[in-house]
Write a structure and sequence with these properties.
The complex is a heterodimer of chains A (372) and B (160). A two-stranded antiparallel sheet of chain A has the order 1-2. With 372 residues, chain A is mostly helical. In chain A, strand 1 and strand 2 form a beta hairpin. The longest helix of chain A is centred in the middle third of the chain and has 27 residues. Chain B is mostly helical and 160 residues long. Chain B folds into two domains: 81 residues, RNA polymerase sigma factor, region 2, helix turn helix motif (Rna Polymerase Sigma Factor, Chain: A, Orthogonal Bundle), CATH 1.10.1740.10; 77 residues, Arc Repressor Mutant, subunit A (Orthogonal Bundle). Helix content of chain B is 71%, strand content 0%. Chain B has eight helices and no strands. In chain B, helix 1 packs antiparallel against helix 2, helix 5 packs across helix 8 and helix 6 packs across helix 8. Chain B is globular. Classes of the chains: A mainly alpha (372), B mainly alpha (160). The interface between A and B is medium-sized, with 26 and 37 residues.
């Protein structure tokens, strides 16, 4: 290399930076010896070099980097944030947080990522509720039982009312004189047939058929006499003999007459009707005596049998029943009380079957029907 | 499950399910529909569901219906969603608001996992049963969601 006074500065910098080889350094030293005025400049350049005495000591441990340890700490912090660590691991993490500022800083940041529930109310819960229909079995059974009882009562009442309506209806015997007993056998089923009787003899007839002929007398007086007649009929039931009947027949005061079933003036009576068993509640009505009848004529066996049946029917008649109804002379009163009669009959049937004593009213299915 | 127990479930969990769905869908009417559908299914299957498991059953049904709804409608517009440029202009004094913004940036699976964990307190296993993931998946997805939330809130413009 050729060092001259024009390019010596470059070689001097290289010499200070120690960029020259050993041979080149000798040539620079030779040039400086030939040019003593340039040696001062080389010495100033060498003074700018730094020495090792100015270096600052830094702990190397702080410079070292551990990737696996950082990930492990972060993982632990996340698990601790999710409460998924066991008690021992959680205690370890807590101790690390307390001892290490970096870990504590990281922990504080991770805690901020946790969200807390807001108070939000769903306003349409009513549409979500479910309610099933309730079945009231007991009420259905009660209603069914009440309906059955009412239906049975009506059916019984209707059937009884049908039985009590054979054609012309019955009833009454009446006389001012207790000895008198006017009995007439109504065997006809034709409601339009008239019953023969005389006007002189007091006869009280109550007919359920409004078309039949009837005659009314004093109601109260007849009631008393009828009661007496019934008692007499009972007594005569066990002791009916020809002698008794003959005595009655021979006694002129007795106006009791047994109408001959074959009497010409009487309506045609079928023998079958005589022989048949009369219904229990039928009352045999005896026609009033006739003037042309011979009181001294002895009573035949046929007449006795007829009388027995009629008396038996009287005896079997239920005294407890309010049979006075049948003695009412007023047809209007009878008609008005038909509904009452119906209910009373239902009441009697219910009382007999259930043995329940009721008040004046008739109770069916919890309801009480006033009879009066 | 009896009728009475079903009605008790309505009282206990209707608010929770509604909140969970509303935070995810951010649409009131759609959230109501999902809640109605979830309880309808619970009523239909009440004989097969035990009373003690009705909450997890409700959340399972609601979650799947929510996912189906999202995939069907592909609703992307979320309330409160904005880009990074706008975030630097708005004040960030509300920590909760920033967190909700960060939550909105997650995908539906990550968001659901965070809500199930923080709102309802389910563990990894229960969350896995609700979402149909295994326990490891739940842990990984949840941790990723946390780190994303952390990265968002430590941004210079979002410093809390």
């Amino acid at each position: 290399m050729n060092i001259t006074r024009d390019n010596y500065e470059m070689y001097f910098l290289l010499y200070v930076d120690n960029e020259l080889s050993a041979l080149e350094k000798e040539e620079v030293d030779l040039f400086v010896c030939q040019n003593h005025d340039l040696s001062r400049e080389l010495e100033l350049l060498k003074g700018t070099l730094l020495t090792s005495e100015e270096q600052i000591f830094i702990p190397k441990t702080l410079l070292y980097k551990n990737a696996t340890r950082a990930e492990s700490v972060q993982q632990s912090l996340l698990l601790h944030l999710d409460n998924e660590l066991s008690e021992a691991d959680a205690a370890t993490v807590k101790s690390q947080i307390a001892s290490d500022a970096d870990i504590e800083a990281e922990w504080l940041i991770l805690q901020k990522t946790r969200i807390y529930p807001d108070k939000i109310v769903y306003k349409f819960k009513r549409s979500l509720y479910r309610h099933s229909d309730k079945v009231f079995y007991m009420r259905i059974w009660r209603a069914a039982a009440a309906a059955v009882i009412i239906g049975a009562g009506i059916y019984i009442a209707v059937s009884l009312s049908d039985k009590d309506l054979p054609g012309d209806t019955i009833a009454i015997t009446k006389s001012n004189n207790p000895a008198k007993q006017v009995i007439k056998d109504i065997l006809t089923t034709d409601s339009n047939k008239n019953i023969n009787y005389t006007e002189k003899d007091p006869v009280a007839i109550t007919s359920k058929n409004p078309n039949s002929a009837e005659k009314t007398l004093d109601a109260n007086e007849q009631k008393n006499n009828i009661a007496d007649k019934i008692i007499i009929a009972k007594k005569q039931e066990s002791n009916i003999q020809k002698a008794v009947l003959n005595n009655i027949n021979k006694d002129e005061r007795n106006e009791t007459v047994l109408q001959n079933v074959k009497d010409k003036e009487a309506p045609e009576i079928d023998k079958k009707n005589i022989e048949r068993d009369l219904p229990v509640n039928d009352i045999v009505v005896v026609s009033p005596p006739e003037k042309d009848r011979n009181m001294n004529t002895p009573i035949t066996d046929t007449e006795i049998s007829v009388m027995k049946e009629s008396v038996a029917s009287l005896v079997n008649f239920d005294e407890t029943s309010t049979n006075n109804r049948f003695l009412y002379m007023d047809e209007e009163k009878v008609n008005r009380s038909k509904i009452g009669v119906l209910f009373r009959k239902v009441k009697r049937v219910v009382e007999r079957n259930t043995k329940i004593k009721t008040s004046n009213g008739l109770r069916i299915g919890g309801f009480e029907f006033a009879v009066k | 499950m009896t009728e009475k127990q079903y009605n008790e479930c309505v009282n206990l969990y209707a608010d929770n399910v509604y909140r969970f769905i509303l935070k995810n869908l951010r649409h009131d009417e759609d959230s109501k529909d999902v809640v109605q559908g979830a309880f309808e299914k619970l009523w239909i299957n009440r004989d097969q569901v035990e009373y003690i498991k009705c909450k997890s059953y409700l959340f399972t049904i609601a979650y799947h219906q929510m996912i189906d709804h999202i995939r069907k409608n592909k609703r992307i517009s979320l309330k409160g969603n904005f880009n990074d440029n706008e975030s630097s202009e708005k004040p960030h004094a509300n920590t909760k608001r920033i967190l909700e913004e960060a939550l909105a940036k997650l995908n539906e699976t990550q968001r659901s996992l965070v809500m199930l964990k923080d709102y309802e307190g389910y563990n990894y296993f229960e969350i896995g049963q609700i979402t149909g993931l295994n326990e490891s998946q739940v842990k990984v997805y949840l941790h990723r969601a946390r780190l994303q939330l952390r990265a968002y809130i430590v941004k210079p413009e979002n410093v809390i």
